[in-house]
Amino acid sequence: AQSVTQLDSHVSVSEGTPVLLRCNYSSSYSPSLFWYVQHPNKGLQLLLKYTSAATLVKGINGFEAEFKKSETSFHLTKPSAHMSDAAEYFCVVSDPLGGSYIPTFGRGTSLIVHP
Amino acid sequence: EAQVTQNPRYLITVTGKKLTVTCSQNMNHEYMSWYRQDPGLGLRQIYYSMNVEVTDKGDVPEGYKVSRKEKRNFPLILESPSPNQTSLYFCASSSGQGDNSPLHFGNGTRLTVT
Fold first, then answer.
1. What is the pLDDT of residue B99?
2. Residues of B with CB under 8 A from a CB of A
3. CB–CB of A15/A27 below 8 Å?
4. Per-residue pLDDT tens over the stretch B57-74
5. A34 and B97 in contact by Cβ < 8 A?
6. Is the dihedral of CA A41, A43, A47, A50 positive or negative?
7. Which of A46, A100, A109 to probe by mutation at the B interface, max B CB count within 10 Å?
8. For residue B8, is pLDDT > 90?
9. Distance in angstroms (rounded) separating the CA atoms of residues B95 and A10
10. For residues B9 and B107, is the Cβ–Cβ distance under 8 A?
């Protein structure tokens, strides 16, 4: 069985300071991992995805995430927050069950950016 | 443009009045899914479909039906809506090849049942 835990329901930062959104997962197999962003009144958009090729994954808008198997973590970071980063962020894990793709979502982390 | 289209964006209805939320994708994706989003609960999967005529229950299927008669369409049906189905609903699709294919989401349907 797979699961994902986003450790913070809300994260508040000042503009220009680093962002850290934490995600831990559990998976019986070799997982696929994703981060999605949801801006107000919008659908979810893919930020980045983990492939087995590299443990440090770069995404859009300056975000990146590091896959750490020993810690079963996939934390999302950005060196400098921008006001436009204020949104809901979802960590997602999936296991390749018989070749299919059935993802499990975390409960989300709301990122608040202060001027 | 590759997209997932949901309709309507907003819907207000009364208890017991059957409704359908449509979802269509133009990417020839095999996998389609419906989610509901509620505050503090994240996204919960209602139903999903691996291909035409193949559907399966997600985590919260009670009170919902789906059908997949064509590859591009995956409507969500509420035969007798109740107030606890008031929520924000998202349709999503992916190629579903079991690799790192991401989900593509529609813009959501906000449903209110009074």
1. 56
2. 4, 31, 35, 40-45, 48, 50, 90, 92, 94, 96-103, 105-108
3. no
4. 998 999 999 999 999 999
5. no
6. positive
7. A100
8. yes
9. 32
10. yes
